């Protein structure tokens, strides 16, 4: 994500400095880099002394540590308060409830007694989710009809939430971007497909009769909490309508299509919002688009040379099974046509 944010900053004339753990990381290949650790006060102080504005590629930052060393002159977006709220699934759920944004029924779980309550409340089953540092299925445990691995409670000190199983017909995603002056733009609604708890493909734009009402509620929430930057929402298309599954306070895999399908990418929108620059009107380059993630399989890599779309390669040094190595974007006259072309093109890659 930091690599693609950096690449979006270059045409805008924005100098970029990256704090990275290693000098060969994807973002370090395209931007000036300071090697260091987010866990080191000295490294953070040194980095922050050289920048005017900071943003994040991941919400998993130590907010208290960063807050303690942040100079007064450095602006942060999204705010540390918003990052802190959304990085914890418990406070994230409370935020959704506060603004009456529909999501799956839930309970906090801190021990075996809470787990018993979850079994009683959700007899058909539930998903136990680690409150912090969970992603791509990591930190998620399934309990079917109350049966599951109780030892999961020992896998983190941060606690869990239990969410009821949701009967949904498809998964959707939506990203909204808000600038400091309150201008908010909604990117197209898209349909996503997950494989092994990782995003495999995205297709759009798609429609839903409840989308307009949901976007109104999301915009109101973003205004009330003074959110600045892009905010991604993973959704379930359930029997009762649209339910928000999770939030991500950053650029998101589900909006990578925007690099080629829209006149302004999610990465540029995010940067513009944080700097309080004008947000361009959304324009589709073609009526349909699709994105497919290039997930590693652990073997030799052979990239396709066919010109069927746009390849975005991340430059990661290690090829591991399931690791996101890049993605492809394809445009067409209809969403399903774009997805079909992307699926065909994907077969020409060897990962």
List keywords for this structure.
four-stranded antiparallel β-sheet; globular; nine-stranded antiparallel β-sheet; 26% helix; 351 residues; alpha+beta; 17 strands; 10 helices
Please describe what this structure looks like.
This protein has 351 residues and is an alpha+beta fold. It contains ten helices and 17 strands. The strands form four sheets. Strands 9, 10, 11, 12, 13, 14, 15, 16 and 17 form a nine-stranded antiparallel beta sheet that branches. Strands 5-8-6-7 form a four-stranded antiparallel beta sheet, with helices on both faces. Strands 1-2 form a two-stranded parallel sheet. A hairpin with a 5-residue loop joins strand 9 (168-178) and strand 10. Helix 1 (2-9) crosses helix 9. The model has no long low-confidence stretch (mean pLDDT 96).
> How far apart lie the N and C ends?
20 Å
- Uncertain regions spanning at least 5 consecutive residues: none
Instruction: Please tell me what the overall shape is.
Output: globular
Helix and strand run: HEEHEHEHHEHEEEEEEEHEEHHEEEH
Q: How many helical elements?
A: 10
Mean residue pLDDT: 96
Q: Radius of gyration in whole Å, from Cα?
A: 20 Å
- Class based on secondary structure composition and strand pairing: alpha+beta
Oligomeric form: single chain
Number of DSSP-assigned strands: 17
Largest sheet: 9 strands, antiparallel
Fraction of helical residues:
25-40%
- In terms of DSSP E residues, the strand content is 25-35%
